[in-house]
Protein backbone atom coordinates (compact mmCIF):
# COMPACT_ATOMS: atom_id res chain seq x y z
CA UNK A 1 0.00 0.00 0.00
CA UNK A 2 1.46 3.36 -1.05
CA UNK A 3 1.35 6.09 1.60
CA UNK A 4 0.75 9.47 -0.02
CA UNK A 5 2.11 12.60 1.75
CA UNK A 6 -1.41 14.07 1.87
CA UNK A 7 -2.60 11.03 3.84
CA UNK A 8 -1.10 12.56 6.99
CA UNK A 9 -3.32 15.63 6.67
CA UNK A 10 -6.34 13.46 5.92
CA UNK A 11 -5.71 11.36 9.04
CA UNK A 12 -5.22 14.58 11.00
CA UNK A 13 -8.56 15.96 9.78
CA UNK A 14 -10.21 12.62 10.58
CA UNK A 15 -8.75 12.78 14.09
CA UNK A 16 -10.06 16.32 14.53
CA UNK A 17 -13.47 15.16 13.33
CA UNK A 18 -13.62 12.34 15.87
CA UNK A 19 -12.39 14.67 18.64
CA UNK A 20 -14.98 17.27 17.62
CA UNK A 21 -17.78 14.71 17.91
CA UNK A 22 -16.69 13.85 21.45
CA UNK A 23 -16.42 17.54 22.27
CA UNK A 24 -19.94 18.24 21.01
CA UNK A 25 -21.42 15.47 23.14
CA UNK A 26 -19.27 16.44 26.13
CA UNK A 27 -20.25 20.11 26.00
CA UNK A 28 -23.91 19.32 25.42
CA UNK A 29 -24.02 16.86 28.34
CA UNK A 30 -22.21 19.34 30.60
CA UNK A 31 -24.44 22.31 29.84
CA UNK A 32 -27.55 20.14 29.79
CA UNK A 33 -27.08 20.00 33.56
CA UNK A 34 -27.16 23.81 33.88
CA UNK A 35 -30.73 25.17 33.98
CA UNK A 36 -31.61 28.50 32.38
CA UNK A 37 -32.45 31.39 34.67
CA UNK A 38 -35.70 32.00 32.78
CA UNK A 39 -36.72 28.35 33.08
CA UNK A 40 -37.65 28.30 29.39
CA UNK A 41 -37.40 25.02 27.50
CA UNK A 42 -35.91 24.54 24.06
CA UNK A 43 -39.40 24.33 22.55
CA UNK A 44 -40.52 27.54 24.29
CA UNK A 45 -37.36 29.31 23.19
CA UNK A 46 -37.80 28.22 19.58
CA UNK A 47 -41.49 29.21 19.55
CA UNK A 48 -40.80 32.65 20.95
CA UNK A 49 -37.96 33.40 18.58
CA UNK A 50 -39.94 32.15 15.58
CA UNK A 51 -42.94 34.27 16.51
CA UNK A 52 -40.84 37.36 17.17
CA UNK A 53 -39.41 37.03 13.67
CA UNK A 54 -42.77 36.63 11.94
CA UNK A 55 -42.48 32.87 11.49
CA UNK A 56 -45.75 31.98 13.24
CA UNK A 57 -46.60 29.30 10.67
CA UNK A 58 -43.47 27.23 11.25
CA UNK A 59 -44.24 24.32 13.61
CA UNK A 60 -41.87 22.71 16.08
CA UNK A 61 -41.76 18.93 16.17
CA UNK A 62 -40.12 16.39 18.46
CA UNK A 63 -37.84 13.84 16.78
CA UNK A 64 -36.09 10.79 18.24
CA UNK A 65 -32.36 10.58 18.66
CA UNK A 66 -29.57 12.53 20.30
CA UNK A 67 -28.55 15.86 18.75
CA UNK A 68 -30.83 15.06 15.80
CA UNK A 69 -32.08 18.64 15.79
CA UNK A 70 -32.47 20.39 12.43
CA UNK A 71 -34.50 22.82 10.38
CA UNK A 72 -36.21 21.29 7.36
CA UNK A 73 -36.35 23.95 4.61
CA UNK A 74 -38.61 21.82 2.40
CA UNK A 75 -41.33 21.16 4.98
CA UNK A 76 -40.53 24.43 6.77
CA UNK A 77 -40.47 22.90 10.23
CA UNK A 78 -38.05 23.05 13.16
CA UNK A 79 -37.38 19.57 14.53
CA UNK A 80 -35.88 19.19 17.99
CA UNK A 81 -34.68 16.09 19.82
CA UNK A 82 -36.48 15.22 23.04
CA UNK A 83 -33.62 16.46 25.23
CA UNK A 84 -33.69 19.84 23.50
CA UNK A 85 -37.47 20.14 23.10
CA UNK A 86 -38.32 19.44 26.73
CA UNK A 87 -35.06 20.50 28.38
CA UNK A 88 -34.72 23.88 30.07
CA UNK A 89 -30.94 23.93 30.11
CA UNK A 90 -28.31 26.16 28.52
CA UNK A 91 -27.60 23.36 26.04
CA UNK A 92 -31.27 22.98 25.11
CA UNK A 93 -31.97 26.63 24.37
CA UNK A 94 -28.64 26.97 22.51
CA UNK A 95 -29.46 24.18 20.06
CA UNK A 96 -33.09 25.27 19.69
CA UNK A 97 -32.12 28.88 18.94
CA UNK A 98 -29.51 27.71 16.43
CA UNK A 99 -32.15 25.85 14.43
CA UNK A 100 -34.39 28.90 14.51
CA UNK A 101 -31.42 30.80 13.12
CA UNK A 102 -31.60 28.56 10.04
CA UNK A 103 -35.33 29.22 9.70
CA UNK A 104 -34.68 32.97 9.76
CA UNK A 105 -31.90 32.54 7.19
CA UNK A 106 -34.41 30.76 4.97
CA UNK A 107 -36.98 33.53 5.38
CA UNK A 108 -34.41 36.21 4.52
CA UNK A 109 -32.92 34.18 1.63
CA UNK A 110 -29.48 34.28 3.23
CA UNK A 111 -27.06 33.97 0.31
CA UNK A 112 -24.90 31.09 1.57
CA UNK A 113 -27.98 29.09 2.56
CA UNK A 114 -29.61 29.60 -0.84
CA UNK A 115 -26.41 28.49 -2.56
CA UNK A 116 -26.14 25.43 -0.31
CA UNK A 117 -29.70 24.38 -1.13
CA UNK A 118 -29.02 24.70 -4.85
CA UNK A 119 -25.81 22.70 -4.77
CA UNK A 120 -27.11 19.98 -2.41
CA UNK A 121 -28.55 17.61 -5.07
CA UNK A 122 -25.29 17.65 -7.04
CA UNK A 123 -23.16 17.33 -3.91
CA UNK A 124 -25.23 14.37 -2.69
CA UNK A 125 -24.68 12.45 -5.94
CA UNK A 126 -21.02 13.50 -6.07
CA UNK A 127 -20.30 12.17 -2.58
CA UNK A 128 -21.47 8.72 -3.63
CA UNK A 129 -19.98 8.58 -7.13
CA UNK A 130 -16.56 10.17 -6.63
CA UNK A 131 -14.99 7.39 -4.48
CA UNK A 132 -15.81 4.78 -7.15
CA UNK A 133 -14.28 6.96 -9.87
CA UNK A 134 -11.14 7.48 -7.81
CA UNK A 135 -10.85 3.77 -7.01
CA UNK A 136 -11.52 2.72 -10.60
CA UNK A 137 -9.02 5.24 -11.93
CA UNK A 138 -6.27 4.01 -9.60
CA UNK A 139 -6.95 0.30 -10.17
CA UNK A 140 -7.19 0.66 -13.93
CA UNK A 141 -4.50 3.34 -14.10
CA UNK A 142 -6.93 5.64 -15.90
CA UNK A 143 -6.25 9.30 -15.20
CA UNK A 144 -9.45 10.26 -17.02
CA UNK A 145 -11.52 8.56 -14.32
CA UNK A 146 -9.56 10.28 -11.57
CA UNK A 147 -9.99 13.60 -13.36
CA UNK A 148 -13.74 13.05 -13.63
CA UNK A 149 -13.84 12.11 -9.96
CA UNK A 150 -12.04 15.36 -9.08
CA UNK A 151 -14.56 17.44 -11.01
CA UNK A 152 -17.52 15.68 -9.41
CA UNK A 153 -16.04 15.63 -5.90
CA UNK A 154 -15.38 19.37 -6.11
CA UNK A 155 -19.13 19.89 -5.78
CA UNK A 156 -19.17 17.95 -2.52
CA UNK A 157 -16.22 19.96 -1.20
CA UNK A 158 -17.90 23.21 -2.23
CA UNK A 159 -21.00 22.13 -0.29
CA UNK A 160 -18.91 21.51 2.84
CA UNK A 161 -17.19 24.89 2.56
CA UNK A 162 -20.46 26.76 1.96
CA UNK A 163 -21.90 25.06 5.04
CA UNK A 164 -19.38 26.84 7.29
CA UNK A 165 -20.71 30.42 6.99
CA UNK A 166 -24.28 29.05 7.16
CA UNK A 167 -23.62 27.36 10.50
CA UNK A 168 -21.55 30.16 12.01
CA UNK A 169 -24.17 32.72 11.00
CA UNK A 170 -26.98 30.65 12.52
CA UNK A 171 -25.06 30.42 15.81
CA UNK A 172 -24.38 34.15 15.83
CA UNK A 173 -28.07 34.85 15.19
CA UNK A 174 -29.01 32.46 18.01
CA UNK A 175 -26.90 34.27 20.62
CA UNK A 176 -27.99 37.75 19.53
CA UNK A 177 -31.67 36.84 19.38
CA UNK A 178 -31.70 35.25 22.84
CA UNK A 179 -29.93 38.26 24.35
CA UNK A 180 -32.28 40.68 22.62
CA UNK A 181 -35.37 38.79 23.79
CA UNK A 182 -34.16 38.43 27.37
CA UNK A 183 -34.06 34.64 27.08
CA UNK A 184 -30.34 34.62 27.76
CA UNK A 185 -28.55 36.52 30.50
CA UNK A 186 -25.06 37.88 29.90
CA UNK A 187 -23.47 35.50 32.39
CA UNK A 188 -25.06 32.55 30.56
CA UNK A 189 -23.58 33.53 27.20
CA UNK A 190 -20.28 31.73 27.86
CA UNK A 191 -22.08 28.39 28.11
CA UNK A 192 -24.03 29.03 24.92
CA UNK A 193 -20.83 29.85 23.05
CA UNK A 194 -19.17 26.64 24.21
CA UNK A 195 -22.10 24.51 23.07
CA UNK A 196 -22.39 26.20 19.67
CA UNK A 197 -18.64 26.49 19.02
CA UNK A 198 -18.18 22.77 19.70
CA UNK A 199 -20.91 21.99 17.18
CA UNK A 200 -19.35 24.33 14.62
CA UNK A 201 -16.03 22.53 14.96
CA UNK A 202 -17.57 19.37 13.51
CA UNK A 203 -18.39 21.25 10.30
CA UNK A 204 -14.88 22.68 10.14
CA UNK A 205 -13.39 19.19 10.52
CA UNK A 206 -15.68 17.77 7.81
CA UNK A 207 -14.72 20.57 5.44
CA UNK A 208 -11.00 20.05 6.08
CA UNK A 209 -11.31 16.30 5.53
CA UNK A 210 -13.07 16.77 2.19
CA UNK A 211 -10.66 19.49 1.08
CA UNK A 212 -7.56 17.42 1.88
CA UNK A 213 -8.99 14.42 0.06
CA UNK A 214 -9.63 16.57 -3.00
CA UNK A 215 -6.10 18.01 -2.91
CA UNK A 216 -4.68 14.50 -2.62
CA UNK A 217 -6.37 13.29 -5.78
CA UNK A 218 -5.49 16.48 -7.64
CA UNK A 219 -1.82 15.79 -6.79
CA UNK A 220 -2.16 12.15 -7.89
CA UNK A 221 -3.71 13.32 -11.16
CA UNK A 222 -0.90 15.75 -11.98
CA UNK A 223 1.80 13.29 -10.90
CA UNK A 224 0.28 10.73 -13.26
CA UNK A 225 0.35 13.24 -16.10
CA UNK A 226 4.04 13.93 -15.48
CA UNK A 227 4.84 10.21 -15.52
CA UNK A 228 3.00 9.83 -18.85
Instruction: Kindly name the structural category.
Output: mainly alpha
Helix-strand sequence = HHEEEHHHHH
Number of strands: 3
Poorly predicted runs of 5 or more residues = none
Distance between the termini: 21 Å
Tally of structural domains: 1
Q: Outline, from the CA principal axes?
A: elongated
Strand percentage, roughly? 5-15%
How many helical elements? 7
- Average the pLDDT over all residues and give the rounded result: 90
**Largest sheet properties:** 3 strands, mixed
Helix content: over 70%
Using only C-alpha atoms, the radius of gyration works out to 20 Å
For the largest sheet, list the strands in their spatial order.
1-3-2
Description of the molecule:
- With 228 residues, this protein is mainly α.
- The chain has one domain (6-227).
- It is 73% helix and 5% strand.
- Strands 1-3-2 form a three-stranded mixed beta sheet.
- Helix 2 (42-52) packs parallel to helix 4 (90-107) and helix 4 (90-107) crosses helix 6.
- The radius of gyration is 20 Å and the shape is elongated.
- The model has no long low-confidence stretch (mean pLDDT 90).
Topology (SSEs and partners):
Elements lengths: L5 H26 L10 H11 L7 E4 L6 E3 L4 E5 H5 L3 H18 L3 H29 L3 H38 L8 H39 L1
Summarize this entry quickly.
The chain contains 7 helices and 3 strands. It is mainly alpha-helical and about 230 residues long. Keywords: Membrane, Transmembrane, Transmembrane helix.
